[in-house]
Design goal:
The complex is a heterodimer of chains A (245) and B (224).
Chain A: E1 11-22, E2 25-36, E3 40-44, H1 51-58, E4 66-71, E5 74-75, H2 80-86, E6 87-91, H3 102-112, H4 118-128, H5 144-156, E7 162-166, H6 174-185, E8 193-197, H7 201-207, E9 210-215, E10 218-224, H8 233-241
Parallel strand pairs in A: 3-8, 3-9, 6-7, 7-8
Antiparallel strand pairs in A: 1-2, 1-4, 4-5, 9-10
Chain B: H1 3-22, H2 24-43, H3 50-79, H4 83-88, H5 94-123, H6 131-155, H7 161-189, H8 194-222
Helix pairs in contact in B: 1-5, 2-3, 2-5, 3-5, 3-6, 3-7, 5-6, 5-8, 6-7, 6-8, 7-8
Classes of the chains: A alpha/beta (245), B mainly alpha (224).
């Protein structure tokens, strides 16, 4: 199953029998999942459910204990550099350098990804996140919400076909959270596949095409958005996880 | 230009730019190294050739222990905001990250050496123009940076990071410190090249071995 040989699959992400243990702690206990190209998958789950571990494995940051992950038909173990060119991760940590300006941060990451026509791309993403006036300001002088907008700009600078969002709204005030939500809604365009983890049920249901609930390292619930009764989803969540959010 | 080399330069430029803005590494190492030199200059009587006898050791104690402070910051800056994850997500070989950080470490250490060496020579009543000393310093700093950068990356994921780095770094660099001290002594005494050649060869061998080993193992060090 995890021998690295797999016929090309029409989905953007395929996960088979994925497990991850940290010593005695089993963070993931056999995940099987497929995400279609252009789909927006939202992952809910309480703290410690394994959401971040799953995202980190999919984004090649952490190696699985067993099982396999294929992105665009390529095993993450076989061609990590090639895969990293196609993916991006936006987390609640911004990955930005406080002492460099918005422009310098984006230029740094753009060069690392060999982004063609970099100056124009930087201009476009800064305009998109509405930070033209802060272009030459250091990241450390920006508010948390503005930093997160730059982080999203960094995430889409190289036009990834698969975008992972790991609780991107954590630590934001309500206004900043609303601004970020509007931006996140625009990320799942042009055939881009988006996988997002969040604790915010309302936002997740709004953005996702499909919802899964992860609990104690297992997928305990999954459904397409149109099949979900949004009004009662909190009860469904509580029922499957045994906890409220 | 080779793409990997361009990316090494990109990482290097980023570190230099951040350091020029904060001066965190160079200033802290510089202050520490200068303090060591001043304290030792008062502790020893520099008359009757003492300068040439004890001075090499003092210079390398200042640079070595100062270096530990600097290397601690090399990857610590990548830990904040999980920047290391941002770097690791980039589609580059892990060795590119190592060489970019190594170039930064080398430059910061060399900058400190360039400032403290004239101070050292004045404090210990030694001639100011010693090109051979510059050669010893450059070659030794390469070795320091090769090992320091690697162990900085290793220590970053440990809880006792500040303690872990000197524990790992100092035993490994003992051969190059001894060689640097032995190569510096003939320079300060005005002895011929032949007296320092063997020690220079030891330093060069150390540099090559640790540059190769660190490049090969960095991937395993940086990953979980």
């Amino acid at each position: 199953m995890n021998d690295g040989v797999l016929a090309p699959v029409p989905c953007a992400i395929e996960i088979r029998g994925l497990t991850k243990s940290f010593g005695e702690h089993h963070a993931l206990r056999g995940i099987d999942l497929q995400v279609s190209k252009g789909e927006c998958l939202v992952i809910f789950g309480p703290n410690g459910a394994g959401k971040t571990t799953l995202v980190k494995i999919m984004s090649t940051l952490v190696k699985p204990s067993s099982g396999g992950v294929w992105l665009d038909g390529m095993h993450i173990r076989d061609k990590p550099a090639q895969i990293r060119r196609k993916i991006s991760l936006v987390s609640h940590e911004t990955f930005l350098y406080d002492d460099l300006t918005v422009y310098e941060n984006l230029k740094f990451y753009g060069k690392m990804y060999d982004v063609a026509d970099l100056e124009q791309k930087i201009h476009d993403v800064i305009s998109w996140v509405q930070l033209e006036s802060r272009r030459y300001d250091r990241i450390g002088t920006l508010s948390r919400g503005q930093q997160q907008r730059v982080s999203i700009a960094r995430g889409v600078l190289h036009n990834p076909s698969i975008l992972f969002l790991d609780e991107p709204e954590v630590g934001l005030d309500p206004h900043a959270s609303t601004v970020i939500r509007d931006m996140l809604g625009g990320l799942n365009t042009g055939g881009r596949t988006v996988v997002m983890t969040t604790h915010n049920l309302e936002r997740g249901l709004e953005l996702g095409d499909r919802i899964i609930i992860l609990d104690r390292g297992r997928i305990v619930y999954q459904a397409a958005k149109h099949k979900i009764d949004k009004a009662n989803f909190q009860q469904v969540y509580d029922q499957y996880t045994g906890t409220g959010m | 230009m080779n793409k990997s080399f361009v990316k090494v330069l990109t990482v290097f430029r980023k570190d230099i730019l951040a350091e020029l803005r904060t001066r965190e590494i160079v200033v802290s190492v510089l202050v520490f190294a200068l303090l060591v030199l001043v304290i030792f200059s008062f502790a020893f009587d520099m008359g009757a050739g003492m300068g040439e006898t004890v001075a090499p050791g003092i210079l390398w104690v200042a640079l070595t222990f100062g270096g530990v402070i600097g290397f601690n910051r090399i990857f610590a800056m990548e830990k904040e905001n999980s920047r290391l994850e941002g770097l690791m997500l980039c589609p580059v070989d892990r060795a590119v990250i190592y060489w970019g950080k190594l170039a930064g470490s080398f430059t910061f250490m060399l900058a400190v050496a360039v400032i403290i060496t004239p101070v050292f020579l004045v404090l210990f009543n030694l001639p100011l123009l010693l090109p051979r000393l510059a050669l010893v310093i450059v070659l030794t700093v390469i070795g320091f940076a090769a090992v320091g950068t690697l162990f900085s990356a290793l220590a970053i994921n440990t809880r006792a990071r500040d303690i872990m780095l000197p524990i790992l770094f100092l035993p490994i660099v003992v051969p190059v410190i001894v060689a640097a001290v032995k190569a510096t002594a003939p320079v300060l005494a005005g002895a011929p090249w032949a007296d320092m050649l063997t020690w220079l060869q030891v330093i060069i061998a150390f540099d090559i071995i640790y540059l190769v080993v660190a490049t090969l193992v960095f991937e395993f060090v940086i990953e979980e």
